[in-house]
Specification:
The protein is mainly alpha-helical. It is 70% helix and 0% strand.
């Protein structure tokens, strides 16, 4: 239509459409056109373009766009944070992720749990276990409800780092938070103990597991204990040296 000039809502809708179509080149071109028309992008437009870049395997462009948002003082939303963390993970950009964590920390209580799970996952995979635990403590201090996947991320990273003492401590935290660890969590620890030389510790774990299985069968004769069954963390700690 002659004389019609798209506004930010129209541009954002078109960028989103290219994002859905997984066409990051056209989404990017439209974003540049938006700037040329003196239409200030908003958080939604930027996060849509970030998502298009991510789908197109353009992780570096995601971070370039994040820098543009900083310069233009465009606020980050949950979606943009998520794409930025994903880009840092793909690029193994440790320096950028530290800056990103500082941006997210004041918003911990309002960002999605999916994003909060993504951060410790990246930190653990990068071998930054101490930083991962510090972030977890801040998440707890914020009053955010910690779910089962969050603990699973922590446990996997702790075991990969060989920190079985902290692993057991986290199992205790789960129980105290009302989330009972699964049998698989104990089996993972038992396997680790057997393959990493903690022979005495492995024997204690196995003893506790067998005891709990017998109790479960006695209480529920027709129910078979499986990987999703629940076990109290405190029973594992009795008699162990941590």
């Amino acid at each position: 239509m002659a004389g019609y000039h798209p506004d930010v809502i129209t541009y954002t809708a078109m960028i989103h459409a290219y994002d859905v179509a997984e066409n990051w080149e056209k989404a990017s071109a439209l974003f540049l056109e938006m700037e040329a028309d003196d239409v200030q992008p908003d958080s939604i437009a930027c996060s849509s373009l970030m998502r298009a870049f991510s789908k197109g395997g353009q992780a570096a462009k995601v971070l370039d766009l994040a820098e543009f948002m900083r310069e233009k003082k465009i606020p980050f939303n949950n979606s943009s944070f998520f794409e930025m963390v994903s880009a840092c993970s793909l690029l193994r950009d440790w320096r950028e992720i530290i800056g990103l964590i500082k941006l997210i920390e004041p918003l911990i209580s309002v960002v999605s749990i999916g994003l909060l799970n993504q951060l410790p996952h990246f930190l653990g995979n990068s071998g930054k276990i101490e930083t991962m635990m510090k972030l977890f403590y801040k998440i707890v201090a914020s009053g955010t409800e910690i779910n089962f996947p969050t603990y699973w991320v922590l446990l996997n990273n702790l075991l990969a780092a060989g920190n079985w003492r902290k692993y057991i401590e986290v199992l205790q935290w789960m129980e105290e938070a009302g989330l009972q660890p699964s049998v698989q969590m104990y089996r993972s620890l038992s396997y680790f103990a057997q393959t990493r030389g903690e022979v005495e510790y492995a024997a204690v774990i196995q003893e506790r597991l067998e005891f709990l299985k017998r109790n479960s069968r006695n209480q529920n004769p027709t129910k078979k204990l499986n990987d999703d069954s629940l076990l109290p963390a405190s029973s594992l700690l009795d008699g162990t040296k941590v």
